[in-house]
Amino acid sequence: MSTSQRPLPRPSDITQPYWDAAAAHRLVVQQCRACGSKQFYPRCLCMKCASEDLEWAACSGQGSVYTYTINHRAPHEHFKARLPYVTAMIDLDEGVRMMANIVGDDALRTAIGARVRVVFEEAGDGVTLPQFELAGEP
Questions:
Q1: Which CATH number goes with the domain that contains 129?
Q2: Each residue's pLDDT tens digit, 36-81
Q3: Cα Rg for the chain, rounded, in angstroms?
Q4: Which domain holds residue 77?
Q5: Strand ranges across the sheet with 38-39
Q6: How many domains would you assign to the chain?
Q7: What is the pLDDT of residue 1?
């Protein structure tokens, strides 16, 4: 990988269904068939009851900003052209938290509690990244 090429996730056997769903512009999280709890990031067992009986559940793609930061320094050459950009922890309406970027023309107006909705970014090499955009007032 050259220094200008964007670093991309490398799916594993556990995460591949998540990335396949993202490629189809669907957001999914794991749900335990034994206890019903949902979790993100993908794991090989339920973090609540330790069951290995997990399935993928569709999400609305809506949530709110738990916390965020505005990045003014690029951690990698690829991101210099995107400066400044917003990285946030998103509380999905389904009860799990995930990290993603807030994108769009008004991304720098991000605030804690702001409502967001998922959008999908074609990142190259067949990878689609779930990102979020502001969706209105909290």
A1: 2.40.50.840
A2: 999 999 999 999 999 999 999 999 999 999 999 999 999 889 889 9
A3: 16
A4: 16-136
A5: 38-39, 28-32, 54-58
A6: 1
A7: 43
* pLDDT tens string 91-105: 999 999 999 999 999
Distance, CA of 4 to CA of 115 (rounded, Å): 33
pTM of the model: 0.91
Type of residue numbered 113:
G
User: Cα 19–92–25 angle (5° rounding)?
Assistant: 35
Where residue 113 falls (left for φ over 0; alpha for ψ -120 to 50; beta otherwise) is left
Looking at the domain assignment, is residue 1 inside a domain? no
In a domain, 9, yes or no: no
What are 70's two structure tokens? 């505005």
Structure tokens at 4: 């200008």
Residue 38 lies in a domain: yes
Going by C-alpha positions, the residue among 118, 124, 78 that lies closest to residue 101 is 118
